[in-house]
Amino acid sequence: MHHFSWRVEEFDEIDSTNTWLAEQARAGASEGLVARADYQRAGRGRLGRAWESSSGTSLLCSILLRPRLAREDLALAVAAVALSAREALAELAGLTSTLKWPNDLQVGERKLGGVLAEIVNGDDGAAIVVGVGINLTAPGPASLQATCVLHETGEALLARDVLESLLAGLAKRRGRLDDLGGRASLRDEWRAALSTIGHMVRVVQTRGEIEGRALDIDEHGALVVDVAGERRVLHVGDVVHLRVEDRA
């Protein structure tokens, strides 16, 4: 079995760990390089939203992976990292969190963090830079209905410890990305951790919004939604879980 060794570069402050790591990837950095920062001046969330957090209160890191994955299976690399993050929080703080498709960690409906991947094309083929932001001791912007590990458990975790536990979990899962059977087991683990399945969801896409019930994820990790009796497969888009009072 391939043993993955991680090389962690630490920064007090950086524009964005994803941007720095993407530059390293383009320059040919090998798999396993990790960047962690106490503060990001220009952190990004999904759809280009700014991700704000004050210094030292969050795990902010990016991980370089080079799995042999078809483009349509890239969601599974994000899932492997998100599952490892979830496991780390359970291990270190006894916190049970769920995953919201495609990439949020939540406690109930409150957002705890997110995982975001970028594909970087370089001379050595495609690499995936997976960025992670987890609120440890401060919940981030109030507008996001966010929470943090401290609020949920009373545990003040150190980002470095969470990263170490996350990387240990990811080392176990990384090899599964390289073959069909491994990807299937990763998908089963992801499906079991997803709060989205069975939920009424509104999916915000560039072309407009659709609403339906999330049924499952398909073999590539795309979301299967029943929209008025029709099965639709969604690859991207922001998924909003609808509470009863949200349904028009």
Explain what you see.
The chain is α+β, with helices and mostly antiparallel strands and 248 residues long. It folds into two domains: 7-193, BirA Bifunctional Protein, domain 2 (2-Layer Sandwich), CATH 3.30.930; 200-246, SH3 type barrels (Roll), CATH 2.30.30. The chain contains five helices and twelve strands. It has a seven-stranded mixed beta sheet with strand order 1-2-3-7-6-5-4, with helices on both faces. It has a five-stranded antiparallel beta sheet with strand order 11-10-9-8-12, with no helix packed on it. Helix 2 (75-93) crosses helix 4. The termini are far apart.
What key attributes describe this structure?
single chain; 248 residues; BirA Bifunctional Protein, domain 2; SH3 type barrels; 2 domains; 26% helix; globular
Helix content: 25-40%
CATH topology label of the largest domain:
BirA Bifunctional Protein, domain 2
Measured by DSSP, the beta-strand proportion falls in 25-35%
Label the structural class.
alpha+beta
- The count of strands amounts to 12
